[in-house]
Amino acid sequence: MTTDPALYPSERLTQVAEAVRVRGLDVLLLTPGPDLRYVTGYDAKQLERLTCLVVPAGKDPFLLVPELELKAAQASPAGALSLEIMTWGETAHPFGMIKSRVGDAHSIALSDRMWALHVLQFKDIFPEAEQCLASAVLSPLRIRKSAAEIAALKAAGEAIDRVHANVPRWLKPGLTERQVGTKIAEAILAEGHVQVDFVIVGSGPNAASPHTRVSDRVIQEGDVVVVDIGGTMPSGYCSDCTRTYAVGHAPDDFTRYYEVLYHARKRPPASSGPASPPRASTGRRARSSRTPATASGSSTAPATASAWSHTRTRTSSRQHDPAGAGHGLLYRARHLPWSARCPHRGHRDLHGSGEHWPGEHGGRLPAVEQRPARAGHR
After folding, report:
1. Which end of the chain is less enclosed by CB atoms within 10 A, N or C?
2. Measured at the alpha carbon of residue 166, what is the angle toward residues 161 and 168, in degrees to the nearest 5?
3. In the chain, which residues fall in CATH 3.90.230?
4. What tens digit of pLDDT does each residue of 214-254 get?
């Protein structure tokens, strides 16, 4: 992964410390995962041995790592920050070390993905503390992207788009989903990703399951095929894009569904602006800005096939999803299927300076049908 300091500016830690103070928390505790990487640039391994960034209110933050992980921490962008890196040995009690530095705490914020193994031990050392999620502190920061972050997101999106551009020539009758998936995985790496996070190829009745994988089902003429793929870029940002293809001619009722969505997408919204922000779609997004293509590769009228997509924008290595809306490019391969700041969750301040919101939205059919005679309906 890159150690580009532009993706992990030194002032970010100061901003996080100020957010802890404003939130009225006693301490923020970040273990390996998206939150830790966002703040420090350290993509630490998740281990039973505790690694934790400690940001106490009114005190200097510090990073506690096992002795055997010290060199890795120092080699990361965290090593270039004005941040004390403490170590603990095999016979030490890391949680007690944190307690001795922090003192009593009545309100603490924990990484959203912290292991229960560590959550419970923090509960032991801070028995009276009220716990909350770190995203309450970090989401307002993570939702605002720097120029370097936007460039990394753009590169991730373009890389996965190049993979999808080749999918139609691989979706041929007679090939299995697994065979197509193998070609896609190879292409994900060839287009600049350092890791394949997932490959979903769902054909016919399998297309009705949004999170299937690949199987030995043979793709047939007339199948609708869902291709949902993503990987991690050298920057640490991840791509994730879903499109739905038709092998040959799409079934008529599927085409009607697509036409409804296509024309709804072209219709101007009734209102817009900060006072009434668009709600984040929790389903797949229809990329109706481009003419859809059939799996045979020929461009036709919008009624021929659909290309539903969710192209995420991950905020700083694979870990910034609380600020994400629907599916997109974030810091990790999977994320919450909603925005943590959606109006239906009590937040109206969606649009602010520097916030990034993708411009493609769509809908999800209220029911899933699996009919052997007309497979692939969603």
Report:
1. N
2. 115
3. 147-374
4. 999 999 999 999 999 999 999 888 999 999 999 988 888 88
Q: How far is CA 177 from the centre of its chain?
A: 25
Distance CA 311, CA 65 (A): 35
In this prediction the pTM is 0.73
For 12-33, what is each residue's pLDDT tens digit?
Answer: 999 999 999 999 999 999 999 9
Tokens 């001795």 found at:
100
Cβ-contact 327, 50 below 8 angstroms = no
Cα–Cα distance for residue pair 221/186, rounded to 1 Å: 25
d(Cα 62, Cα 69) in Å, to the nearest integer? 15
C-alpha–C-alpha distance, residues 178 and 169, integer Å: 15
Q: What is the largest CA-CA distance in the chain?
A: 68
Q: Domain 147-374: which topology?
A: Creatine Amidinohydrolase (3.90.230)
Integer Cα distance of 347 and 368 in angstroms? 31
